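Entry 14. Structure prediction run on the chain below.
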Amino acid sequence: MKKIISAAFVVFVLNFTSNAQTNPVITSWVINTTNATGYNCPTCTTPHYGTIAADVQSVYYTSTDAYVKSQGVPSYNVGPWNSNPNTPSAQNKTWKFTLTPANNTGTKTTTGLGLIGVWSNGTGIFNGMDGYYWNNSTGAIAQGSGTWNRNAYIFEGVSFDACLGHPNQTGTYHNHVIPKCLFASTNTTTHSPIIGYAFDGFPIYGPYAYTNTNGTGAIKRMTPSYTLTTATTRASGPSMSTTVTISGQASTYYAGTFLEDYVYSAGSGDLDQYNGRFCVTPEYPSGTYAYFVTIDASGNPAYPYVLGPKYYGTVASGNTGPSGGSNTVPTGATQYTVAATGITEYNTFSYDINVFPNPIEDNTLQFQVADNSHDLTVKIMDYQGRVLVNQLYRAKQYENKVALPLKYLSTGIYMINFESNGSKMVKRIMITED
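Output returned:
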């Protein structure tokens, strides 16, 4: 049976209206405060333990933008990569994200080959293409992008590691689909956390959210509005009977091997053609446009995986293209800092929040509050800063005693963060086994 030991950890004032550091574009990154290194592959044929600084090294911000520095490798174990000769390498990138993203009301920008955003740990997000397309004029596959683009999940999936990522020819470690090791991806009971940002500045969430866009309703899996075609031919494209080799096996260009085999049908799912929607989330109680990584009912990646074929918002310069990520932090920018372990400040709540029981019963943690008249946000984070639980309780819509399932948390030390009505309290919880 799991046991939980709870102790006061960090308590401090948070001014939501005047402190720029509360903007999720600034605060949602996994910042490396322990000198952790990345590209660790203990299961590779020749075990590898890297020396590259992992996750995000620093975040700076101005009144208009956030600047995120990263070498592009995660602190969690990666690899091995079957049939892939490439290995991760330090990328030395500085990404720039606007603090005020906006809908692009003009011609939408295509999410092309290469990076289209950054996960919250500073690693890369690619779209669903594998970098090859059908050249109808030659009747053969060519490198690049075109009308019929091959599906990376089908053709490159064999080289994905257990975290569903792999490195490309330049050593850029990336995911085309859900980054399973970045967050508690199997947590179906609470709103998924922010797990990255697209280059138009809008957040990317895990697959679970409130049923209703106003922040109400049960937690559900966000479904895309793309369905697989029922057609048996492709106009000016490859025949569905053409024999190809997929993951080492002779097969055909069946429906789904090209991204364009998926057809958008407005309203058929929860999300729009960009794979997002405008909605209330725990980090954005007033609402925001947000993308969601999509999976099927079995938990497998589902097209369009992360973003759709185009960005919803306006893409700022400086992140895409061959020299993307070479932004310069402006003189005078402020560095965002993460509170160090053991800091003791003061409690602005007029009451304490009790966390119990010990031991946990049925893998469920409970907490009790004296006042439920305001919205309450509860987050559980590990010591690498990854948000594993992120739940918003609406004012007067929750009981004073709340049960929070922890079946997806292993033994270890976590931080549980409570935010309500301009105040914040953080407690340390230690989960152990009998």
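The chain has two domains: 32-336, 354-433.
Filed with the rest of this week's runs.
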